[in-house]
Structure to design on (265 residues):
């Protein structure tokens, strides 16, 4: 990677953001509506603070123990597990579900997400590609495959997939954000910001998209602007968590302090 983002360590540390903005588009969230509507949390899981996420994990876990073959429930449970850093447990839930529903596209896509979160990229690609129907390609799966390829260093094939996804779903914020992440991982922060801003301005953009925009703005040394973006439309607790996350990401490269202390022209 080039520029301020230099070094392979940053690519590894970007995996969590890549997954949240990319493959999450093909998996379910806490807003599952089929079969489990009464058990869904009151608001999207990506907007929950740590306490609410922990409560969701407990609630879903108790329900999952009673009926592990309930597809919407298992998908939602795996999602909240992943959001609380329990990738291995989320993968176990999804592996069991994939065995129970071996031909289900939604299950295979979410299984691919869990495999990628665990660093099993080849297996993740296989799961996502098996979920895809070449004659009627799913833009979410194209974006998911691109996100995995980006993490494997296959930049150009990944961007080709993102553009194919945008042909099917023009202006989709999660795909635009993934495209921006691809350029960010390559060190082209200006191009990355252009795509991220388009993503953040698109209808349906969520806090994960804005978090990615905040990160690329912060990497260019515009920290006050980055914090303003990260706090937008979030609870104070979630906004503060985002700020701390941004600082932690940048601190891995020691770029926060180096850029913040740089004399302004």
């Amino acid at each position: 990677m080039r520029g301020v983002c230099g070094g392979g360590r940053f690519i590894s540390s970007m995996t969590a953001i890549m997954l949240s903005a990319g493959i999450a588009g093909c998996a379910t969230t806490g807003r599952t509506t089929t079969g489990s509507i009464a058990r869904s949390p009151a608001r999207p899981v990506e907007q929950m603070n740590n306490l609410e996420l922990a409560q969701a994990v407990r609630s879903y876990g108790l329900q999952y123990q009673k009926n592990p073959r309930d597809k919407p429930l298992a998908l939602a449970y795996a999602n909240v597990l992943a959001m609380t850093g329990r990738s291995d447990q989320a993968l176990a839930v999804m592996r069991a579900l994939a065995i129970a529903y071996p031909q289900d596209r939604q299950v295979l896509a979410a299984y691919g997400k869990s495999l990628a979160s665990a660093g099993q990229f080849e297996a993740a690609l296989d799961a996502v590609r098996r979920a895809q129907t070449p004659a009627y390609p799913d833009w979410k799966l194209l974006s998911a495959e691109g996100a995995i390829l980006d993490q494997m260093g296959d930049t150009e094939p990944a961007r080709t997939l993102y553009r194919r996804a945008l042909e099917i779903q023009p202006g989709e914020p999660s795909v635009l954000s993934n495209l921006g992440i691809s350029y960010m991982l390559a060190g082209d922060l200006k191009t990355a910001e252009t795509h991220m801003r388009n993503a953040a301005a698109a209808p349906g953009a969520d806090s994960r998209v804005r978090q990615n925009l905040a990160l690329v703005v912060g990497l260019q040394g515009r920290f006050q602007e980055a914090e303003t973006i990260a706090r937008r439309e979030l609870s104070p607790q979630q906004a503060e968590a985002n700020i701390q996350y941004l600082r932690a990401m940048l601190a891995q490269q020691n770029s926060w302090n180096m850029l913040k202390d740089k004399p302004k022209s």
Notes: Residues 60 and 209 are 26 Å apart (CA to CA). Residues 48-133 form a domain with the Serine Threonine Protein Phosphatase 5, Tetratricopeptide repeat fold (CATH 1.25.40.10). The chain has 15 helices and no strands. Confidence is low (pLDDT under 50) at residues 1-38.
